[in-house]
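pasting for the record
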Amino acid sequence: MMEMSELSFNENARVVVALALLSGVTIVHPNVDIHITRVCGVLAPAFSSHITRYPRSNSSTTEKAENHIIKWLRVVLYAILAISGQTSALLLSRLYYQKGGTSNWVESLTQVIGFPVLLPYYLFHCSTTAPSDGGAVVKPRLLLLVFTYMYIGLLMAVNSFLYSIGFEYLPVSIVSLVSASQLAFNALFSYFLNSQKFTPFIINSLLLLTISSVLTVSSNTTAEKLYGTSNGNYALGFICTFSATATYGLMLASEQLVFRKVFDDRQSIKLVMDLTIYPSFVASIVALIGLFVSGDYKLLIPEMDAFELGKASYVITLVSTAVCWQVSIFAGLGLVSELSALFANCIFAVGLPVNMIAAIIVFKDEMDSAKGISMVLAVWGIISYAYQQYLDDCNDETQVSEV
C-alpha cells in the first residue's frame, strides 16, 4: 500500500500514480478519486478498486457543530425579539385606544409601517456582503417576487386591520388568549401548503387550543368588557381577532412556502429582510389608502389634541408601536427561515402568559378562574406543539448523521 499525504498532479506525479496502479499498488488518499480520470483517462474505472479513501479530518464535523450552535443562538435571539416586540406592541396598541385613539386605520398603519427602521442595516448588509460565487444560486423571476411580496403584503394589511378592531373592543388579555388559536390555523394551512403532518401531539394541541378559545369567549361577563363597549362591539372584536389569527396563520404558512419554493430553502438575513420590508411597504400603501378613503386622516389633529397623555406622547406611542411591531415581524420571519412557521407560531404563543401578566399589571385586567384555566389549557397545547417540533428536529438530525 502506498500512502500519499499530498498529490500534485504535474507530469511526473501522473506517471508515478499510473505506474503504481498498473503494478497493483493500492493508493490511500482522500481526494485521489477526484483526479484519477485526469491520470488514467478512460482506464480510471478499472483502477477504482485500488483506491482506498481514509476518513477526512474532524474539521468538517467541528464546523457543523459550530454552525449548529450559531444557528440556535440566532433562534434564541429571534425568540427574545419576537416575544418582547409582541408584548410591547400589544400594550402600546391598547394604550392608543384607552387614552383617546379612535381610528382603526391609524392603528392598522402602525402595525406595518415600521419597516424603515430596518433600512440602514439592510443597505449596509447589502453593500458589505460579497455576492456568492460559482453562479449556482438561481434568482427567482422578478414577476414571481412581485407577486409574492404583494400577496404577503395584502395578508399583512388585512391582518393588521382585523387586529386593530380587536384591540379597540377587547382587553389585551382576551386578545392574547384568542390569538393562541393561530397555532391551529397554522397547522391547517401548513397541512395544505407545506405538507405538515398531523401527529397525536399536534391533534392534542389543536383540541386544547380550541377548548381554550371557546372557554375564553363563553366565560367573560359584562364586567370583563371595556368601559362603553356594547355586546355587539364585543362580539365584533372577538370575531375580528379570531379572523386575524386565521390570517396570521395563513401568512406564516405562506412565508414558509416562499422560503421553500421561491428562495429554494436558502437562509440569510437579506432574504428575511426582503420578506419583511417589501410586503410591509405594500401593506403600508393599503393602510394609507384606507386611511384617506375612510376620511380618518381628518381626525389625526383633533385626536392628537384630545389624547390624554399629550401631543408628544401621542406621537411617541404611535412611533413606538410601529417599531415594536416591526421587530416582532422581523423576528417571526427569522424563526420561519431558521426552522418553520410552526415553530415561529409556538414562540409567539409562548408569549401568551407574558402578555397576560403584563396586561394585568399595566391595565389592571381581571384574572378570574375561567381565564386561568383557559391560559393553562393554551400553554399545555403550546407545549404539546413544541414537543412535536422537538421530536421532528431530533429525527432530522438523526437522518443527517446517518447520511
